[in-house]
Amino acid sequence: MEEKKTEEKLRKPIPWKKILLFSLLFLVLIVSSFCYVLLRGSLRTLRKDSIPEGAYVVPWMRPNPSIKELNLNAQQPYGPPIFDIDSVMANALKLNMTFNISIPGGNRVIPSTVYLGHDLNYLYVGGKFCGMGLNPASTPNDTVPHVFKVFFDVADDGVLKQPESGSCFGAYITESWIGGWSYDDTIWVDYVGEYDRASWIYSGYYYTYYLGKPQTVFGIEDGIKEYDNSTGTVTMLFSRRLFCAGNAEVNALQMRPDERWVMGFLIELSYVTNTGRFGDYVDGWPRNIYPYLSNDSSWWPKLCIDLTNPPAATSGQPSPSTNS
User: Fold this and answer.
1) What would the pLDDT profile of 116-131 be if each residue is shown by its tens digit?
2) Most CB atoms closer than 10 Å: which of 56, 79, 82, 306?
C-alpha cells in the first residue's frame, strides 16, 4: 500500500507554471531593488550646482613648487621670506581685502591677499597679510598664534547648521624664530552650552566632549607659514582635502569627482589671545561676524569649486593627483 502511494506522488505533475511565475516575480523584485538603490545613490551623491552671477570660481591649479617642496627648503634661520606666494600661487583666484583688528592701544590695518586654487583632491588656501606684525598677546613665556580661518556654508542655503565646515590654520611666530603651525577643522554647532551661544568650534573639541572619542582624521594635508621681520608680513599656505573619508560628522565638505559645488564662504584673520575669550583681536571678510550669535549666512559671498571637467595638466604639472 505504501509503495502505491509513493508511486502516485512521483507521478504527480510538477507545478512548473507556479515555479516560473514565482521566479519571475522574484527576479523583478531583485532588479527593481537594485535599480532603486543605484538611482537613489546617484541622486544623493552627485551634486552639480548652477553657478550664480557674481560667484567666485576657484581655478584648477596647484602650488608650484608644492607645499612639501617648500617645506624642504624652509629649514633655515628666522629671517627674510623663503618663498614668494604670488609666484607659488600664480594661477590662483586672488581676493584683495583689508582687515582692521582692534588691539590694546590702537588698531592694526592689514592689507591682505587671499589665494584659492584646487585640483581633483585638494583646495589650496593661502594668505599674505601685510604689516600684521607679532601677536600682541604673546609674551616671552607664552607664544599664541596668528590664525587664518575659512568657513563654508556647504549646503548653500543661507542657514548654518551642523556640520557646516571650516578650516583654521595657526602660525606660531616669536621675535627670534618661526615656531610651528597648528590646524583644526571647525564645525558649526547650533548651541554650545558652556559658551551660551551658537558657534563655530574646533572639531577636535567636538569629538572629545560631545562624541566621547578622539578625532583621527583631519581635513588638512600640509601647510607652511613664514614671517618677514622687516615688514611684519605673515604668509600662510595650506591644502585642504575636498573629500575626507571617515570625517563626515564634523566635515560636510565631502566633494566627489564630477561634482560642482557652490557654497557660501567667509574669511577671518585674528590673533589668538591668552585669555581664551571669543571675539578679541579679530576681523572678517566681507565683514566680521563675531560673536557668532546668528546662523544667518545668506549674505556670505559664493564660492564655486567645479570638479566636472579636470584639465589634462594643471599649471604645467602632471594631471591632478594627491600631491600637495
Assistant:
1) 999 999 999 999 999 9
2) 306
Place of cell 617645506: 71
SS3 assignment, position 1: coil
Q: What is the DSSP letter of 14?
A: P
Select from 3.40.50, 1.10.10, 2.60.40, 3.90.25 the CATH code of 56-306: 2.60.40
Asked if 244 contacts 254 with a C-beta cutoff of 8 angstroms, the reply is yes
CB of 191 closer than 8 Å to CB of 172: no
Q: SS3 of 301, please?
A: coil
> What is the three-class DSSP state of 211?
helix
Cell 507521478 appears where? 11
Q: Is residue 148 helix, strand or coil? A: strand
SS3 147: strand
> Residue 84 contacts by C-beta under 8 Å, 6 or more apart in sequence?
none
Q: Which runs of consecutive H residues, i.e. helices, occur in 46-168? A: 67-72, 85-88
Contact at 8 Å (CB) between 104 and 138? no
d(CA 142, CA 149): 22
Give the separation between CA 98 and CA 84, rounded to whole angstroms. Answer: 20
- Characterize the bridge pairing of strands 56-57 and 302-306: parallel
At 234, the amino acid letter reads V
Question: What does the angle CA 223 – CA 249 – CA 170 come to, to the nearest 5 degrees?
Answer: 25
pLDDT of residue 15: 66
Q: Alpha helices of the chain — where are they, by DSSP H?
A: 2-11, 16-45, 67-72, 85-88, 203-206
What confidence tens digit (pLDDT) does each residue in 67-109 have? 998 887 765 545 556 789 999 999 999 999 999 999 988 999 9
| Across 32-36, 110-114, 219-223, 261-265, least confident range | 32-36
8 A C-beta contact, residue 186 and residue 201: yes
Q: What is the pTM of this model?
A: 0.81
